[in-house]
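[09:14] KT: can someone run the structure on this one? pasting the chain below
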Amino acid sequence: MDTRALIDFLVAAFGFEEHFSVPGEDGKGIIHAQIRWPDGGGVMLGDADRGDADHLALPLGPVSIYVVTDQPDALHDRSVAAGARVVWGLSDEEYGSRGFSCLDPEDNVWSFGTYSGE
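[09:31] RB: done, structure tokens below
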């Protein structure tokens, strides 16, 4: 996993804002980083091979994340232009949401839509 490249992608493709990142002691990798969603909220991430905490012993694999946006069409176009691979095209759902899903370079599924929960 290249956390630095992933952060750069999330900023360019989806519009996250990098709040800060802590590089590894050797200057390589990212121990901890925080990116913010412009409409509120954020994501914390870092290299999986840092530390010895139990949660770091989990096998690596993709995750699925849902992010609320009021501009799914513009975000879809921005994501595609930045190289995101769309896995669920922009569509209107029966429950009133409009959104899409795509993959980042690490094969995590990012779903963006107007549905903000009940």
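[09:33] KT: thanks! The helical segments are 3-14, 72-81.
[09:34] RB: yep, looked fine to me
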